[in-house]
Amino acid sequence: TQLLEQSPQFLSIQEGENLTVYCNSSSVFSSLQWYRQEPGEGPVLLVTVVTGGEVKKLKRLTFQFGDARKDSSLHITAAQPGDTGLYLCAGGGSGNTGKLIFGQGTTLQVKP
Amino acid sequence: DAGVTQSPTHLIKTRGQQVTLRCSPKSGHDTVSWYQQALGQGPQFIFQYYEEEERQRGNFPDRFSGHQFPNYSSELNVNALLLGDSALYLCASTLGQRFYGYTFGSGTRLTVV
After folding, report:
1. By C-alpha distance, which of A3, A2, A6 is closest to A73?
2. Alpha-carbon gap: A69 to the closest alpha carbon of chain B (Å)
3. Buried b (16+ CB within 10 A) or exposed e, B62-87
4. Which residue of A46, B51, B68, B112 has the smallest Cβ count within 10 Å?
5. How far is residue A69 from each of residues A24, A30, A53, B24, B76, measured CA to CA in Å?
6. Using the beta-carbon criterion (under 8 Å), do B48 and A98 form an inter-chain contact?
7. Contact present, B71 and B64 (Cβ < 8 Å)
8. Which chain A residues are within 8 Å of B41, Cβ to Cβ?
């Protein structure tokens, strides 16, 4: 059974601080996706990484896919209150079809 | 361009009852997947429908069933509701079963009392 473990589960920081969220598995995934979810809403896709070692940047957010395609990280620079939310990583299997396996999520609170 | 639409947004049911949740996919999408998200957890895959057939199923009992209509919309049915079925039920649509380009709806919050 493929599992994704996210850490930390909860993170409360001050505006302007940097943070990193980790997503780890013992299984290989064909791709990793990161989502952000706000209360009462569905997850919104932030990025998809598909190549081992790949790094993608989205403004203040940097995403990395591990060389072995078993882990990923999300780094936020100079966090802002608008970054507050639930961050979810999700892994896909071969063929890019079917289900996504989600981690349990990281709840981020950025205080002004 | 409408995204994924789910109805109802909230629902309260009694143990043992049956419930039907509905989903209209994003325009241009033909595949619908359903996920269950318990409070404080990540979504768990229930099943996926493509070409009006269930294509893949997660680790959920037969009490959970679904349907896809010719217009690609979908229903999720849950029979004999248990307290543990209380969750946010999310519908995600995509094209051709691919999980690239998933678009999620805002979900239906089901409370079983």
Report:
1. A6
2. 17
3. eebbbebeeebbbbbebeebeeebbb
4. B51
5. 10, 7, 8, 33, 33
6. yes
7. no
8. 104-105
**Measured between beta carbons, which residues in chain A are less than 8 angstroms from residue B103?**
45
> Mind listing the pLDDT tens digit for each residue in B17-74?
999 999 999 999 999 999 999 998 999 999 999 999 999 999 999 999 999 999 999 9
- Interface contact A96, partner B, CB < 8 A: yes
Q: From first to last of its 112 residues, what are the pLDDT tens digits of chain A?
A: 778 999 999 999 999 999 999 999 999 998 899 999 998 899 999 999 989 999 999 999 999 999 999 999 999 999 999 999 999 999 987 666 778 999 999 999 999 9
Pairing of strands B10-13, A106-111: unpaired
Q: Which two tokens stand for residue B1?
A: 């361009």
